[in-house]
Amino acid sequence: MLKLSGMAVTSAALAGLSQQTAPADYTIDIAAYDLEVAPRRTIKTIAYNGQVPGPLLRLKEGRSVTIDVTNHSGNSEVVHWHGLFLPPEVDGAMEEGTPLIPAGGHARYTFTPRPSGFRWYHTHTFAGKDLHKGQYTGEHGFLFIEPRDNPARYDQEIFLALHDWDGDLLASGDGSMDPVYGVSAINGRVLGFGEPLRVKSGERVLLHLLNSSPSEVHWIAFSGHQFEVVALDGNQVPQPQVVSMLRLAPAERVSAVVEMNHPGSWVMGEVRKHIMAAGMGIVVEYSGSTGKPKWDQPNQLTWDYLAFASADPAPPQQAGTITIPMVFESKFTGHGAMDHWTINGKSYPETTGPTLTAGQRYRLAFINRSTNDHPVHLHRHSFELRRVPDHPEVHGILKDTILVDAGTQVEVEFTANDPGPTLFHCHQQNHMDAGFMMLFQYA
Amino acid sequence: MLAVLLALSSAKPLRAQGNYEIQVYGAATVEPKSTMVELHSNFTPDGQKYQIDGVYPTNHQEHETLEITQGLTSWSEVGFYVFTSEQNGHGVQWVGDHIRPRVRVPDSWHWPVGVSLSTEVGYQRAVYSPDTWTWEIRPIVDKYLGRWYLALNPALERTWHGPDVKQGLGFAPGAKVSYDFNRQISGGIEYYADYGRLGAFDSLHDQQQQIFVVTDLNVSPKWEINIGVGVGPTASTDHWIIKGILGRHFDWKKPSLLD
Q: Considering only CB atoms, which chain B residues are within 8 Å of A300?
């Protein structure tokens, strides 16, 4: 069970900031930023502390932290601490009760971070048709909660964020409008622009990859190398596996160890050609290596959550577990508009969320009847993946975001152990803005 | 999309008409490595009943036009037309051919409306159109607004060979307004006209104007279906026309999730 203590958020005008006597552990300034994403290509966006991604926040598990946020963006803002078990007042979703930070205002977030692992923080505001707001901006950053005892063995740790930029609403194959992007980048730079990742032969490099894209799934390969996946969404997997590529839906994270045993200059990047062409790649350069970076184009897309599940037979469902069916469907609103989205026939805020009982085990059955894939996210809790299509029950994979493919059913379980309003939503910005949200309440 | 009203550029009383491709252009272009094949079928139940200046009457003419459009780049395409006519006493006849290159504003420019520019050059036999060689330039502007779709084609036409060669530029606009009833079915109005010479429009009586009630059936991204019934309210216009467009999109790219 979680121990929730020492957490508070305050919001006030900037003038009030000086009244806070104790300095914060971290400060984040939200402001307009010109991101030079490629040579002679600047994207006007909003960023944290004038950088994309925002600063890496390294926190200690269980040790209280204070973060001051000032908002110079010109719009109301809120910062969501994704993957943390926080009370709703500081989790960073106004639907749960976290106060918005008004334009020109500030907030002080004080909380005790947990659980340990690779988390992230990002804006949680409405964007609608404005593809220069919300998750379409550069408002995202890495957050790593160091465990009390770190068993990982590595020589170098690298954080990488996959993001899509320069969005436009265009007609899609399903007859509605969807965001389409002109630029795709890693850590705010297109392939070949900016410094390469520098490694040494024989090193074990721990990569922490985050898909901070507002709406796009990404497939990542590293030519000449393979990934040993050790954690999904910051949670260690029961069976670390070596794979040739990674798939990350929006908001998902993968932590993987790479043995640097193939000296040279290589490209790590998007497997799909049009997204690689839009810039999603980064050069990895061994010490002493020169020459043109090499990219070996994979010829298929491969990813399977189950590869990392426990090898032991899944235990039977815990007696008394309550199943909550959640049916995802789209609602056509015109060829010139984005679809609206419903859960069990209703769009947020009309959605009727379940009332949870503290301590009760629940199974969420995600039934996706739409033609879109959905990366769904549950705030303030982790869930265990229990069933994917065409497979028997599984266990051992803990996540906070899971991709439910179009026309399929995925089931997860969680224990209601963090009382307070809890938001559930699709992490595609255009979907959550169009009704794909539900608020769980505790009894 | 296209509204090629062959011979409408000579908007004189009792001048023969040829409705071969009746379509308001949208701004989008066919993607590279793919082809759109369309069959335009137009029948005139009530049209010009007399042969004038050697031009066949349009009454009860059935026009079949094959349009093949090849995507070149993400912002350009080229279309080819084969026009035919079938009528009692004349059988199935080849009427003429056109070629139509088109470019559009790329998506990366983020314009608030879709914009493209089409130009069309072609020949048609004199028994179907007294102006045998014609040229057209057609700006295209369109916009989706929720369930509504708006398109405007203010086309300019020029005769290169025929009686109207000295008339200069003619103004022949087309426009469309439609509404999405659901994901599959849209309905709306299409308007086609030829006002005559730019700067010296014909009188309303002599102008050619057509208004169609149409439906678009969006059954699949691969198929295009448009059906309409039109009325020509002026004396110089065929009074009733029924039109249909059946289009099929062919993708020549090897299907791959990696592209």
A: 257-258
